[in-house]
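> tool_call: predict_assembly(chains=three)
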Amino acid sequence: MHDITSSTALWYASRATGVVSLVLLSAVMIIGILVNRQGRLPGLPRFVILGLHRNLSLLAVAFVAVHVLSAVADPFVSISLAAAVIPFVSAYEPLWLGLGAVSLDLMAAMIVTSLLRGHLGRRTWRAVHWLAYASWPVAVLHSIYSSKDLQSGPLLYLAIACILAVIGALAWRVARARAAVPRASRVPGLMDDPHLVAGGR
Amino acid sequence: MTSKLRVNPIACSGHGLCAELLPELISLDEWGYPVIAGQAVPPRLARRARRAVTDCPALALRLAPAPERPAAARPAPGRRVPAA
Amino acid sequence: MSAAAADAAVAQDGPAAASGLPRLLPPPGHGSDLASHLRTHGPVPYRGSARALIPEVRAAGLTGRGGAAFPVHRKLEAVAAARPGRAVVVGNAAEGEPASHKDQALLHLAPHLVLDGLQLAAEAVGAGRVVLYVRHDVLAHAGLDAQIAQRSVRGLDRAAVELVSAPARFLAGEESALASLVSAGTAVPRFTPPRVFERGVDGRPTLVQNVETLAHLALIARYGPGWFRGLGTPDEPGTMLCTLRRADGSVNVAEAIIGTPLSGLVDSPGASAVLIGGYHGAWVPADQVPWLTLSNASLRPAGAFTGAGVLAALPADVCGLVESARVARYLALESAGQCGPCLNGLPSIAAAMGELAGLAGRRPDPRVLENLSRWAGLVEGRGACHHPDGTVRFLRSALQVFAAEARLHLQGRCTAASGRPFLPVPAGPTTDADWSSP
C-alpha cells in the first residue's frame, strides 16, 4: 500500500519467513520420523527421500537466517543479534523469543553434526540428532507466542495443521515400534511362520 | 592405497540406500540386506562409495584401507578356521 | 579296546611320570579337593614377572581347547602388550555347546588346575582383573566359591577371582559376547574389530581362554614344554578332553591323546555316522572312522576338525537328517538376532531342513535342496560372529553325508527305523532376558 516504511517491511519479512520456516521444519520432522526400512514412497528411491530431508532442512536454515536477521535489523523492536542465539536476553518478549534462540541452537548442533557425519561415531551423531524432538516443539511455541500472527485466522489453521501432521507421524511410528518384536525374539516367530516353506518367502 | 567397503551387520537395518548409490558393488539379498562385492573400490567409484558411507542412515557402512598385497596368511586370534 | 582304555588311565604317580594318561583329570583314587591337588602338583609355580611364562607356552605349542585351536602364546603376547594392571583375564566355562560336557567335568574333577592356570595367565599378561565365567547351572553345583576361598586362606592366589554366571545360550561363550556380559551388558556378540584382545571387558585388553586350555597351561608351567610334547603329534601336541556319546546313548568325558585313532574312541559298529566337534562341526560317515585320528591334520581332509571335542556316534536306526534338522532349529533359535542375514537366513534354513527331514508332515518341496544351498551361501560370512558360518558348515556336512537319505526323503521315504531323538537339543523359551546374566 503506501508509506510502507523499511521498518515495517523488515518486520513483515521476519514474520513471513518465520511462517515458512515453521512449515519447512515440520516437513523435515515428518520425513525424518517416517524414514525407516519400510518408509519409502512407491517409485521414489530411498536416497531421494534422504536428499529431500536434507535439502528441506538446509532450505529451512536459509529461511530461519533471513527470519532472524530481518528481526535483528528491524529498529522497531529491540532484538540484538546476541539474543538470536543466547536464550532469554532480548528486550522484546524475552521468553518466547528466547525459545526461538534455544531452537536455533539445537538446530545448529544437528546441522553441524550431520555435515560431519562420516567423521563422528554413530552414537554421537544419533544422540545429537535426537535433539530434534526438543528443537521442533520449542520452535512451535516460539512461533505461536512471539507475535500474534499464528493465534488467529488462516495462520492459526496452518500452525494446527503442522502440529497435527507431526504428531500423527510420531504416533504412527511409536505404534509400529511397540508392535515390532525385539530382534532376538523375532527368530522363534520366523521359525513358526506358516509361509516359511522350502520355497522361501 | 585402495579401500574396501565393509558393513557392520549389527548396525545395518536394511535401509538399502547403499545399494541404490553404488549398484556396481552392492546388491541387496532377498531379505533387503547388502551383499558387498569383496574387491577393492575402483578409483572411479571412490567418491560414490564415500557418499554411500556418509549417507547410510544407520552409519553401518565403512570404507577401510586395504593393503595392496594380501598379508601373510595368519588367522586372527579367536577366529575359527573353517574346515578345509 | 575302546573308549574304556582312554578313560581307565593306567595308575601312576601323577603326570610327573613321563608317559600316559591322565594329565588333566585326577588319577583313579585321587580326589579333586585342594589337599589332593597340592599333594599331586604342588602350589602355583609363579614365574615372578609378566611374560616370563610365554616362551615356554610357545615351545609347548599349546593351542586353545575351546574350539578354535588358536596358538595360546600369540594371545598371551597380544594381551601382555597392555600396560601393567590394565588387562583382564577370563576363564571361559560357558560351555554353550549342548553336546559337550568337558568343561563342567573339568570344573568338578580338577578345578584347581583351572584356577592355577587362571593365576598363571593373569601373571603372564599383568592382569588387573581375573574372571571365571561359568554357565549358571554348573556354577550352582560346582562349589567354586568354596574352592577359591580355600585357596585364598592358604595364600595360593595372587589375584582375586570373580565368578560370573553365564546364561545357557549357545553363543554365551563367544568371546565378544562374553566380554559384553562381563562388562555388565548382555551376552550377545559385538562387531569386530576391535577384537577382545585389544578392547574387551570394559574396553580393556582381554584374554579369553577356555578352562581346559588354562588347565593345560597350569601343567606346562610345572612340568615344562618337553613334557607337554611327550604325548600327541608334533604339530598338535598334548591331550584333549572329549565328550563321547555312544550309539547306545551313554555319554562320558574322557581325556585322549591327540592323534589317537578315532576307532579307539567311538564305536563305529552300530553307527551310521559320527558328528565331530560339536554343532558347528561336521558329520563323517562311519566307514571313514577307521582311517581317522583325533587330530586336525587327519580330520580336515575329511571336512571336519576337533573343535570342542564332541564325538557323537549316530545309531544306525536314527535318521541323520532328522537329527540335523533338530540341531538346525536349535541353532536358528540361538541366533542373537542382531544381523539381518542370520536372523532371516537361519530360520529359513532350519525350516527347509525340517521339511527335508520329514518333520513338516508333508513331502518336501523339490526345490528344498536348491534353496538350502542358496541360503547357505547367503548367510556365510555375513554375520558379526561365526554363528552362521558354523551352522552352514554343520548343515553342508549333513547334506553330504546323508545325501542318499536325502534323495529318499524327497520321494517321501525314510530308512530310519526309530524316531527317537538322539542328540541333546535344549528346549526352552527365547527372550531378550535370556541373554543376561541369570
